[in-house]
Design brief:
Elements: H1 4-14, H2 16-20, H3 31-40, E1 41-42, E2 50-51, H4 53-57, H5 60-74, H6 83-105, E3 133-137, E4 140-143, H7 144-156, H8 161-164, H9 185-197, E5 203-205, E6 211-214, H10 216-219, H11 228-238, H12 241-249, E7 253-257
Parallel strand pairs: 6-7
Antiparallel strand pairs: 1-2, 3-4, 5-6
Length: 269
């Protein structure tokens, strides 16, 4: 069961489509991204959203629409935006670029099968497309890593960055099925955090009471308080009551895990 906080957040987001309906596409630069996400993001019974990559790849119109949205976004000035608008801008751009990277190479089994180009090998041994420079924003040529690790994390200092950006993998927090927007950002980030934390890939209480958590909480522990106790406190903040109670009793993290398989819709999905 979702927390009261998450229910409030979800109620707030549920009202968004009706409130936004009167806007014309010319008034809403993210309307095209909304339409693409509505068409190709699928709910799944296991709680992990899937992407209709095959259908998207097969639609020249939708591929062109994604390219056009990215080009339009790159022409904006996030440095002049209020905080929430800038956060939404960067998260939307990251997600759109990730979708383009996967669609350009689809079919692939994992985003990690797509290697970065035009840069030296990653000294940490990471494989994936995150270091390829893909877009120019305000005169700066940027990669996905630049957007997430050099811009969003140090600028906003909000652990919910990790629930806003999606790396096209089963282990990742769900791709939000709409464009992020400043007006609803806080409520939707809380809803996204609750959805992940209360799913087994976010946190699982093992039989001995210890915890298995997403590797996100290990890779970026500094964003979640810098310690196991800080990670658990973060999880408890977004956990449903039953899980929150168990997290109060147990704070030792036994292991972490992450599934890099592509978040692809099943055939015909």
């Amino acid at each position: 069961m979702p927390t009261r906080r998450a229910l409030v957040a979800l109620a707030a987001t549920a009202a968004l489509p009706a409130a936004a309906a009167p806007l014309r596409a010319a008034d809403d630069p993210d309307a095209a991204l909304d339409a693409l996400l509505r068409r190709h993001v699928l709910d799944h019974p296991d709680g992990v959203t899937r992407l209709r990559y095959a259908a998207w790849k097969g639609s020249a119109e939708d591929l062109a629409a994604l390219d056009a949205w990215i080009a339009g976004a790159a022409a904006r000035r996030p440095s002049a935006m209020p905080r929430d608008a800038a956060f939404a801008f960067w998260a939307n751009l990251y997600n759109a670029l990730t979708l383009k990277v996967v669609l350009d190479r689809y079919p692939v089994r994992s985003i990690r099968d797509i290697r970065s180009t035009g840069v030296p090998l990653d000294p940490k041994g990471w494989f994936g497309p995150w270091r390829t420079r893909l877009v120019t924003v305000e005169g700066r040529r940027m990669s996905l890593d630049d957007i997430e690790h050099e811009t969003m994390r140090p600028t906003f200092r909000d652990p919910r960055v990790h629930y806003a950006v999606n790396c096209a993998s089963i282990g990742c927090p769900n791709l939000w099925p709409r464009a992020w927007r400043a007006a609803t950002l806080e409520a939707e980030l809380d809803a996204a955090a609750a959805a992940f934390v209360n799913h087994p890939r976010g946190v699982t209480v093992l039989g001995d009471g210890r915890l298995r958590v997403s590797s996100i909480y290990a890779w970026f522990r500094e964003d979640f308080g810098g310690s196991e106790a800080g990670v658990v406190a973060h999880l408890r903040r977004h956990a449903a009551p039953a899980l929150a109670a168990r997290l109060t009793e147990r704070t030792a993290i036994a292991e972490d895990a992450y599934d890099w398989a592509l978040n692809d819709a099943p055939p015909g999905g």
